[in-house]
């Protein structure tokens, strides 16, 4: 049986396997223990059919240990994060396994600012959970549960507050939206309505019966691409099940690649505001080029949404995100938000009078080659050390070792890191052409293979 994954991003497991009501209740108790009796937590879930069971179990643990619970029902991850802030809660809980298949569910824990726990907080929560020593409250001090149905409305208002609604609405854009029967299906049409879009909404039912594999990558988006062509839409948008990530299809029905979501959104915001941006080490160099064209710079953080947000807050970045389709606008809430991405891309189209395809063509193009292969955990550090030594003498090489190793050269960059959750190593490289990128990957792979062989 697969093991339960307990990481800085929360808990993830298989329903009826590693993640059942007992585990979920224990995590509710552990969170209550960490926050203290008398505190308040908001809780919401994506559309997975296992959601109500996990939600009830977590809430039961929280209430039993004296923490009040505000239930938001089915909502997007950014919507739940927003309500955690707006309701001045002491924490938030999101029941979602994001882009993982239907067999999975997960529990994500949020700080009062809507951002997931820091590594230190996550480690503390895990320690309390492992101890299984929970202080249940007596009848008078049990938590109180209430519900709140304002999430979608407040989320749409918050996004509209940072967008030129009139400029977008005037265009009457025709949009195909694929919500994969996930949490975005409820709130996103409300935003589209405010922006006066003509929406063809596919996989719109919040049933949790995912219409295709949920990871928002090209091979899973054929239906969206076809629908854009069939209706002659201006643009197609695809969300993941908890609606924090967004991918885009251009006016010809072509999937433009998940890396372009952040690049386009960044190009848009830099027309209006200047300042530092933040992203992770694995994200395409396009954002550096877009920022440089506006006289701005990009801070690179270790992989993981929490790390990007932490870097944004620390370095005073006004905007950021991840190359996996995650756009982070702190003026709404500092987490990845597909609704912000949609609104920004539509306003970018509206105010430039350009199509998505034309806007994409204005951004310097790169080829990103990603590989992963089995690698024992103890081989990771020696491979990284070997790569560092190997590239040290190369002219102009710039090293970042805050998360594995990333080496930037003028012609591209190469990254190497071990997985936190599996015995896997990832090597990725980006350059102007595929040959250069693949050669960089092969160069590191040639260093890695004998080291990995020696450790097995
Ligand atoms: Mg997600």
Task: Describe what this molecule looks like in 3D.
This protein is an alpha/beta fold and 456 residues long. The protein folds into three domains: 5-151, Alpha-D-Glucose-1,6-Bisphosphate, subunit A, domain 3 (Alpha-D-Glucose-1,6-Bisphosphate, Chain A, domain 3); 166-361, Alpha-D-Glucose-1,6-Bisphosphate, Chain A, domain 3; 367-455, TATA-Binding Protein. Helices cover 39% and strands 22% of the residues. It has 15 helices and 20 strands. The strands form four sheets. The protein has a seven-stranded mixed sheet with strand order 1-2-6-5-3-4-7, sandwiched between helices. Helix 1 (21-35) crosses helix 4 (119-131). It is globular and about 70 Å long. It binds magnesium ion. Magnesium ion (MG) is lined by residues 98-99, 240, 242, 244-245.
CATH fold topology of the largest domain: Alpha-D-Glucose-1,6-Bisphosphate, Chain A, domain 3
Bound molecules: magnesium ion
Which whole number gives the mean pLDDT? Answer: 95
Strand content: 15-25%
> Can you name the CATH architecture of the largest domain?
3-Layer(aba) Sandwich
Main beta-sheet strand count, sense and barrel state: 7 strands, mixed
Low-confidence stretches: none
How much helical structure, as a percent, in the residues? 25-40%
The CATH class assignment of the largest domain is Alpha Beta
- Tally of extended strands? 20
Strand order in the sheet with the most strands: 1-2-6-5-3-4-7
Main structural class? alpha/beta
**Fourth-level CATH superfamily of the largest domain:** Alpha-D-Glucose-1,6-Bisphosphate, subunit A, domain 3
Distance between the termini: 23 Å
User: If helices are DSSP runs of H or I spanning 4 or more residues, what is the number of helices?
Assistant: 15
Rg, nearest Å:
22 Å
